[in-house]
Amino acid sequence: MQDFVNKIVSWYEKNHRQLPWRETHDPYRIWLSEIILQQTRVEQGRPYYEQFTTEHPNIQSLAEANEESILRLWQGLGYYSRARNLHKCAKTVMAEHGGHFPKKFEDLKKLPGIGPYTAAAIASFAFGEKVACVDGNVYRLLSRFFGISDDIASPKGQKVFFEKAQSLIPSDRPDLFNQATMEMGAMVCTPKKPNCMYCPLQAGCFAFEHNKQEELPVKTKKVKVKKRYLHYLIIKHEGEVLMKKRDTKGIWAGLYDFPLIEGKEAIVDFDDLLENTPNFNGGKFLLGQISQQYKHVLTHQQLFVRFFEISTKNQAAFQQVKEAFQSHSFPLEETMGIPKPILIDQYLKEHQLEGVE
Ligand code: SF4
Predict the structure, then answer these.
(1) Nearest CA to ligand 1 atom 5
(2) Cys bridge to 237: 31, 197, 318, 321, which one at CB 3.0-4.6 A?
(3) Catalytic: 163?
(4) What CATH class does 226-350 carry?
(5) Strand 286-290 to strand 260-263: parallel, antiparallel, or no bridges (unpaired)?
């Protein structure tokens, strides 16, 4: 056990990546980085971390920001419930803890959007508490090295791994141990093709000895991927366009998108689309262009998206369709500043929306 700890810490001290959130003990910055990096690669998350800490250098600033500006900053990271919880948590820390994060693992877990892993990261990196951070990298490393075959997707398996990590963590510098196990899992004991030849843990590693790297860790939960066909209507009238705020449920809650028609299959023709659109008098609208189909892959869904750009000179028709879709009209030049799903943002960046002649 001690050998495992010594080797991994010594490897970390020589080989770890320099990352801005590792240079600080500020719980606000550590928390921010951990929330951003959930289900996000370091290279992708880093500019977001820098943007957030520049615009909101402390928790008070974040708590006082409005939700739309936070969603705008978050745009492109996906899983927008994380951004909403980020804001909720900042407000809770201000209102209930005088602007200071609680120092204990057990108290941190009670804050919105903070699960056991994030609570452990804040408690150990900011406050030196001896509590193990077990993320996907650590599950993999421990599973392979110790030959633990419990399912990492099950609560029982997660308990086994947490207890294992907790039994290894040293009293002095628990933060260093946590950083080292996560970094080793991310950089050496990778999901595919782990770098066993250069791994300091090779001697004594169960998976290496038994050639079980591909079988460990065990994760039985299957993700069912649903296909969805989304058809967006970009409806313009005299320099304005209709957009709609998504309600509080779903992957894009709180963001804006265009009036949407979802079909059981892809629709490529405007007339076919109209047949699927009650209360919409297509005769008063001019078809501009129909986009290619875009594919957007999420964890549980594959989205196939097409944009139909249409316009009208008829104020009454525009008003009618605005009400039918319960949408709002915005000046075209304001659309870039509105928080929206990344695929819509990309479309708008690629296609200049033009007003009605
Ligand atoms: S020897 Fe290979 S499988 Fe074992 S811990 Fe190192 S990288 Fe992972």
Answers:
(1) 145
(2) 318
(3) no
(4) alpha beta
(5) unpaired
